[in-house]
């Protein structure tokens, strides 16, 4: 497999965690979203992913984009350890939380949107994350065990940790979100989350390395 990734991309981080958890080795090709006006806009990368976003994963003779689609494929082809619970209700909760982050928070504060916001980009990002986290905190109070849904790491957790990293980057006050904070702390102690962390990637700038 070949993963096209950017160290700071939260969507790329979700996929790196999944690959690490499932023990799938891969080659990483960095795509710098800022350098050269954004390497994702090159003709070469557009041919690979017409949406001009990371991540993209070449695997088993196909190229996949969209982090949750990639994670679902990895789940179906490498079922252990499972990232979707067997119980249909818990599985639905995992998908709900993953969608809440992947559709309802992250795209609103993504690089492409922030470019449009000009000087207001920090305020915009904080507002998007705060309103999303207010809802997420409430949901997690009903679903969480040790992690987002019960005591097994799931696709929901793969979305949570990168989104908390975004929140910290945009200086969001995490005080009102004790459940999110507690789960994130537990996740960052897991090896798969450590090795896939933005501070430990081949393309991480020296000043941001762990």
TrEMBL record:
Enzymatic reactions: RX + glutathione = an S-substituted glutathione + a halide anion + H(+); 4-maleylacetoacetate = 4-fumarylacetoacetate
Subcellular location: Cytoplasm
Listed CDD domains: GST_C_Zeta, GST_N_Zeta
GO molecular function: glutathione transferase activity; maleylacetoacetate isomerase activity
GO biological process, one term: L-tyrosine catabolic process
Involved pathway(s): Amino-acid degradation; L-phenylalanine degradation; acetoacetate and fumarate from L-phenylalanine: step 5/6
A GO CC annotation given for this chain: mitochondrion
Keywords noted in UniProt: Cytoplasm, Isomerase, Phenylalanine catabolism, Transferase, Tyrosine catabolism
InterPro entries noted in UniProt: Glutathione-S-Trfase_C-like, Glutathione-S-Trfase_C_sf, Glutathione_S-Trfase, Glutathione_S-Trfase_N, GST_C, GST_Zeta, GST_Zeta_C, GST_Zeta_N
GST N-terminal domain boundaries: 1-82
Pfam family, one: GST_C_3
Cofactor or coenzyme needed: glutathione
Predominant place of localization: cytoplasm
Domain of life of the source: Eukaryota
E.C. number(s) listed in UniProt: 2.5.1.18, 5.2.1.2
The keyword Transferase is assigned to this record: yes
Domain spans labelled GST C-terminal: 87-206
Family as reported in the entry's similarity comment: Belongs to the GST superfamily. Zeta family.
Name of the protein in its database record: Maleylacetoacetate isomerase
Organism (species): Ptilorrhoa leucosticta
């Amino acid at each position: 497999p070949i993963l096209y990734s950017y160290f700071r991309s939260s969507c790329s981080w979700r996929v790196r965690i999944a690959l690490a958890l499932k023990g799938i080795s891969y080659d990483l090709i960095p795509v710098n979203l800022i350098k050269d006006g954004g390497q994702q806009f090159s003709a070469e990368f557009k041919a690979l992913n017409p949406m001009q976003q990371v991540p993209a994963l070449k695997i088993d003779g196909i190229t996949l984009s969209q982090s949750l689609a990639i994670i679902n494929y990895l789940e179906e082809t490498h079922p252990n350890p499972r990232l979707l619970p067997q119980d249909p209700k818990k599985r639905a909760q995992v998908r709900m939380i993953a969608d809440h982050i992947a559709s309802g928070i992250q795209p609103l504060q993504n690089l492409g949107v922030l470019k449009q916001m000009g000087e207001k980009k920090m305020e915009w990002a904080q507002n998007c994350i705060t309103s999303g986290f207010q809802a997420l905190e409430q949901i997690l109070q009903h679903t969480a065990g040790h992690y987002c849904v019960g005591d097994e790491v799931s696709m929901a957790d793969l979305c949570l940790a990168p989104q908390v990293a975004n929140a910290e980057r945009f200086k969001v006050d995490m005080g009102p979100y004790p459940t999110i904070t507690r789960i994130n702390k537990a996740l960052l102690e897991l090896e798969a989350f450590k090795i896939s962390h933005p501070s430990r990637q081949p393309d991480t700038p020296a000043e941001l390395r762990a």
